Structure formats: structure tokens, C-alpha cells
């Protein structure tokens, strides 16, 4: 009797389990997804990745923060540094317009001072410089002294036979028995005479300046806002007006001559 009751109980329990199993269904409940902040991708398990996940576009990056129009005030004890000044690379208008000239040569101190006084109100800078003279007024061509008068006369005959004239035998003094072959007003003319005589075989012929060297000349260098012409130089007593590099004119204001 007890065994029969146990069998009936087991059948009832098995039937109940079978009914419960059929009633629950195959799909498990899907948990609701939690909303994520923008730009944050949902974490997926390896088994969850599928075609839909691969086709999903990448998250859109958040836009960069926009700077505020007004800068926040500096903290206490700190002062904002002022903006650095921008250097103006353009030249000063006066310096860009300057034109420089050399007026001269002046050999007379009075004419030089008068030209300075006339130029002083017209120019921005004025400087007087001295230029030593490199030219001589007269040049002579000559042959050194010979052993005696007879030797000098024999040499003169050779010179005449070579087609040259304008000779003179010095009779006395330190240069006695030397032969003068001409006096010339420029070095170029004297050098040409010397070259011709040497080409004819008179290799000892010399050319040299005579007399004292001319005095040094002076020039007025100016930096002017207006151009100067040759006529302006002549009016001031200067024989020439030559363009000049402004770097050669000292950066000092023009001063009146005394």
C-alpha cells in the first residue's frame, strides 16, 4: 500500500515538472539596456559581436571646447603681461628720401666757407673732408748724367738719329751732363715720351714730377632731401657734383661755417 502511494506521488511530481518546463518558453528575458553618455561606446562581449556591430559607424568625437570671448580675470597677485610691441621695419621717411653728393674740389678757404653757409639750411647732413692731391702740375723726361760732356754729346747724336728732338744737355750743377728730353703738363704725356724712347733703345730714360705737390683739396659731402645738379655746384664754387654713398656721410647735423 505504501509503495503504491509513492509511485502515484512520483508520477504527479513528474507531470508537474513537465508542465512547468513547457510553460516557461525558450527565450530568456532580455535585460533593458542602460543609456550611455554621448561619445562612449557600449562594451560588448566577444560572443556578442556580429555583422550589425561591425557595420556600426564609429562614435562621433565630441567638438573641441570653444574659447570664451572674455578672458577670466588674473588671480590675485598676478598681473597680465601687456602685448609685446611690434617693431616697424619700414625706414624713416626722411632717411629713405635722402640723396648724397660730394661737391668740390675747393682749394680756397673763403670759397669753402661760403659754400658751407649756403648749403647749411638746404641739407640734412654736411661734412667737410680733405683729399690729398695725387697729381702734379709738371713732369719731365730725362737721361741721367753721363761721364763727361763728350759722352753726353754722343748720346744726343744717337737720340737725334732715332728720330727724336726736343733735347737739352745740362751744362752745370748737380745734374751736369744729364740730358733733358722734354717738360710736360701731365703724367700721361710724360709716360708716352718715356715709353717711345725706351722702345728705341734708351732704357735709362726717366719720367718724374717736378716742383712741389699741389695743396690738398677739400670736398663738402652732403645728405640732401632734394637733388643737386652740376649747376648748383658751379653756383657754390665747386667744379664737380658727384653722387655719393650716404653711408660715407657722417650722421651729424649740418652746422654753419664760421
UniProtKB/TrEMBL annotation:
<dbReference type="InterPro" id="IPR007730">
    <property type="entry name" value="SPOR-like_dom"/>
</dbReference>
<feature type="compositionally biased region" description="Pro residues">
    <location>
        <begin position="56"/>
        <end position="66"/>
    </location>
</feature>
<feature type="compositionally biased region" description="Low complexity">
    <location>
        <begin position="67"/>
        <end position="90"/>
    </location>
</feature>
<dbReference type="InterPro" id="IPR036680">
    <property type="entry name" value="SPOR-like_sf"/>
</dbReference>
<protein>
    <submittedName>
        <fullName>SPOR domain-containing protein</fullName>
    </submittedName>
</protein>
<dbReference type="Pfam" id="PF05036">
    <property type="entry name" value="SPOR"/>
</dbReference>
<feature type="region of interest" description="Disordered">
    <location>
        <begin position="50"/>
        <end position="90"/>
    </location>
</feature>
<feature type="domain" description="SPOR">
    <location>
        <begin position="90"/>
        <end position="172"/>
    </location>
</feature>
